[in-house]
Amino acid sequence: MTVTRKPLTRADLAPLARAATGPRRTLAGVDRLRGGSKKGVYRLTFDDDSTSVAYVWSADEDYWDAGPSDPRDPFSHGTGLDLLTAAHDRLAAAGVRTPRLLYADATHTHLPADAAVVEDVTGGSLEETLERDPVAGRAALERLADLLATLHAQEGPAFGKVALVDNGGVSSARSCEQRVTEGALGDIAATAVRDERIAAARDDLESAVRKLSAAVRPRGRHTLVHGELGPDHVLLDGGGAPVLIDVEGLMYLDVEWEHVFLELRFHEAYDLLRTPGLDEDRLRLYRLAMRLSLVAGPLRLLDGDYPDPGPMRAIAEHNLRRALELVGRRGAVT
């Protein structure tokens, strides 16, 4: 994307807001919320001080500039109105809280893009609560553990994105471990041309991925997982209950993938989310693969015009060092 990106204005979003809430309320203000890299997220404030949140999927809002993605690939670019509505409906059926979908428009009637309006969950993020009030944060973590137990009790008939599998589709990979292995090897290749430390350790990294993958035994269980569940992807409602956001990546997968991400993002707090009975072979493969993904992904994003590159560089550097440590290499700059 080489053109200048412009956030949407009140005038731009007023027709969508009117369609979602009716004529009795007038859109008074719009704020683009920080953090979104795949879609635009806007808080809509009305003349009665009520609020909603608008999601907009357009090329201007997607800093990955990924173009069309293959829905048969569970790890393809996980964004879009169809993915949101499928995830929303599946989570609602499972009894897992996510912002209520108030309005969806795939016709481009109100904007030249797919768009949706959802409930505004105003209790702040779990990440903020953990930093501000450890006691309240612990209580929220315990409630999140219960929510995850509900989520992970759900299974699907096959491996893949919920939007695909629940409509009878079949993923392009035969198993989660195969797709993760292929992705990890691809991430090594992509990163080796960008960083000399990965290039120097490429043989060791590839050998480790293949060895760890060979140890994983086949499994027929496909668990419902969020896929990228950090404390910033959990909001709290007025009663302190956790609400999952950024759910477009919802899929049926090995539950160990979810736990590796939880472990990575929650640090010491993960102890409250830990569950017994996980497959250690899968955990070892997925820990290395996750680190490699969190190097390759941020570096790819930085090829474009992402407006806050510093944190992305830090994520890539941190995970590069951890990946090298997992194969017995030092992560220091050479």
Automatic annotation (TrEMBL):
Keyword Transferase among record annotations = yes
Protein name per the record: Aminoglycoside phosphotransferase
Q: Which Pfam families match?
A: APH
Taxonomically, the superkingdom here is: Bacteria
Entry keyword set = Transferase
Keyword Transferase annotated: yes
Q: Where is the Aminoglycoside phosphotransferase domain?
A: 87-257
- InterPro entries associated with the record: AGP_Transferase, Aminoglycoside_PTrfase, Kinase-like_dom_sf
From the UniProt annotation, give the residues forming the signal peptide: none
Example GO molecular function: transferase activity
